Amino acid sequence: xxxxxxxxxxxxxxxxxxxxxxxxxxxxxxxxxxxxxxxxxxxxxxxxxxxxxxxxxxxxxxxxxxxxxxxxxxxxxxxxxxxxxxxxxxxxxxxxxxxxxxxxxxxxxxxxxxxxxxxxxxxxxxxxxxxxxxxxxxxxxxxxxxxxxxxxxxxxxxxxxxxxxxxxxxxxxxxxxx
Length: 178
Description:
Blueprint: H1 5-31, H2 35-45, E1 47-60, E2 74-82, E3 89-99, E4 113-121, E5 124-132, E6 136-144, E7 153-160, E8 169-176
Antiparallel strand pairs: 1-2, 1-8, 2-3, 3-4, 4-5, 5-6, 6-7, 7-8
């Protein structure tokens, strides 16, 4: 026997608990005309933060300057974060990147890099991670500090580091769901 009877009972009990929770949410929706669920949905919609970047650089200790990164290389990326208008500095961006070089070949889900980001701003930091290719990439927000403590959500980033032939700019559209 793969499962002991107590394990099955625990599984059935957890299933019943999930079902009861779902029914309870239904009761809340009916008792208040759905206002509570609408409030929760609108809170989850969160806020949007738009940032631009300048002085975007990509540095590799594994390759000479000007040589494109290869599978297994470690990279750092950094730049200044500006408000949406691009006129006022609001923070700095730092990333650690690991080149995967898409070991499985070209495909719609292939990644060139796996990246960890920190957006350091005066009122706190946003920490995110994800994979990247050329063009726009989406990163998951995994936390933050200060104003962004407990942050969740995601952002779309377009980064053009000078070392990869870009103009040294970036754009971020951050959707916070916290």
